[in-house]
Write a structure and sequence with these properties.
It is built from six helices and 26 strands. The protein is an alpha/beta fold. The protein has four domains: 160 residues, Molybdenum Cofactor Biosythetic Enzyme, Chain A (3-Layer(aba) Sandwich); 56 residues, Molybdopterin biosynthesis moea protein, domain 2, CATH 3.90.105; 81 residues, Molybdopterin biosynthesis moeA protein, domain 3 (Beta Complex); 72 residues, MoeA, C-terminal, domain IV (Beta-clip). The strands form seven sheets. A six-stranded mixed β-sheet has the order 7-4-6-5-9-8, with no helix packed on it. The protein binds adenosine monophosphate (AMP) and magnesium ion (MG). Adenosine monophosphate (AMP) binds next to α3.
Length: 407
């Protein structure tokens, strides 16, 4: 566990481990056609039903020949076009016109590029002596029949969908979509589009959090804005828990007078922990409400986005059935210094660039937990480990490039 100056703060890795253990994976599965498969999660391994390619075929436009044929010129006896194979068998002294992707005729074992030939009517002279196998894509060289192409827990991207189609599969078995309820708490919050009374602010968190969840391709249930009233919060929680696998709630989770989230969670469910050694963040509650997993995010806008991204998303992805790989982590040279006290792991918004092949990380400016514009020019987190103190320019810093969920 990382050293913390506040002992009740849970290190991020410990928080993630505890949440993973306490968050169930959806069991239900369904068949989905390729047209709706983007970002869905495979529910079982998918094997190839046949070899890819399914036959030896040409990698070039040219002539199919017998390697080692010593004839001065070869006689053109036919053609093999993509979709229209040559039906005979090639004899010594013969060649067949062939196009890219077309089946290699029986008897042929090499393809000569048309650029390396001299064509005189039906007589083809070769400039080079072909080697056996030259310019031939072998049956099964891409995928072998029976090979597992996708494991269970794979999130389907565009290339994956093309691959499934190339295997002749019109659909796949996927996990049902996770249902995630989202709500904001706070008497000061007003929905965008309404007039803003004095002393109020617009509810920005719910929109950012819902958008991040949509990128995750979960079913988002927007519960709306809930005032700082214990009864209203209890009712919203019960409604959310009756419909969703997980609840994402922003605000009301620290120790102010109007912070009713923890008492409501305590009363209706259970709190596993509520302080994590993360900055921005720290007040971050995790627990259960009936059968739903509960994430209580801090209200500060940057904190809510970063804690959803860094703490809740890995758990939601696992709940959705995804096998999540560790994020890509780089090292970069800091061009600026960072203020820091040991205790919490800091996720500063920053600009990663490569200068003469060397990674450099530039601070994204003001880093207050309410300063959403700190994300604007940023493309990465500068990750300052919990035990680290102030960082000087020139030091090496860990960097996690933003993924598509956050930007
Ligand atoms: P809280 O976590 O409720 O103590 O809120 C911390 C800070 O975040 C306060 O300044 C709130 O006004 C602000 N805040 C809380 N919820 C939201 C929200 N949904 N959108 C924007 N700011 C919020
Ligand atoms: Mg509040």
């Amino acid at each position: 566990m990382a050293s913390c100056d506040e002992p009740q703060l849970l290190a991020i890795d410990d928080a993630l481990t505890r949440m993973r253990t306490a968050a169930p994976m959806v069991a239900e599965r369904e068949q989905v056609p390729l047209s709706e498969l983007l970002d869905r999660i495979s529910a079982s391994p998918i094997k190839a039903g046949f070899n890819v390619p399914s036959h030896d075929n040409s990698a070039m436009d040219g002539y199919a020949v017998r390697a080692g044929d010593t004839h001065q010129a070869l006689t053109l006896v036919g053609q093999s076009l993509a979709g229209h194979p040559f039906n005979g068998e090639l004899q010594t002294g013969q060649c067949v016109r062939i196009t890219t992707g077309a089946t290699i005729p029986a008897g042929a074992n090499a393809v000569v590029m048309q650029e390396n030939t001299l064509v005189t009517g039906k007589q083809i002279q070769l400039h080079t002596a072909p080697q056996p196998g030259e310019n031939i894509r072998r049956c099964g060289e891409d995928i072998r029949a029976g090979q597992v192409v996708f494991n269970a827990g794979h999130r389907f991207g565009p290339v994956d969908i093309a691959l499934l189609a190339s295997l002749g599969l019109a659909q796949a078995t996927v996990k049902r979509r996770l249902k995630v309820a989202v709500l904001s708490t706070g008497d000061e919050l007003i929905a965008p589009g309404q007039a803003l009374p004095a002393g109020h602010i617009y509810d920005s968190n719910r929109y950012g959090l819902c958008a991040m969840l949509r990128r995750l391709d979960v079913e988002v249930l927007d519960i709306g804005l809930v005032p700082d009233q214990p009864q209203a919060i209890r009712e919203a929680f019960q409604m959310a828990a009756s419909q969703a696998d997980a609840i994402v709630c922003s605000g009301g989770v620290s120790v102010g007078d109007a912070d009713y989230v923890k008492p409501a969670l305590d009363e209706l469910g259970d709190i596993a922990f509520w302080k994590v050694a993360i900055k921005p963040g720290k007040p971050f509650a995790f627990g259960h409400l009936a059968n739903a997993v509960f994430f209580g995010l801090p209200g500060n806008p940057v904190s809510s986005m970063v804690t959803l991204h860094q703490l809740a998303l890995p758990i939601l992805r696992a709940m959705a059935g995804e096998q999540v790989a560790a994020p890509l982590t780089l090292s970069a040279c800091a061009t600026d210094g960072y203020k820091k006290r040991p205790g919490r792991q800091d996720f500063q918004r920053a600009q990663l660039s490569s200068v003469d092949g060397v990674n450099q990380i530039r601070s994204g400016g003001a880093q207050g937990s309410g300063v959403l514009t700190s994300f604007l020019d940023a493309n990465a987190y500068a990750v300052l480990e919990a035990e680290r103190s102030a960082v000087s320019a020139g030091e090496t810093v860990t960097v996690i490039p933003f993924d598509r969920f956050i930007r």
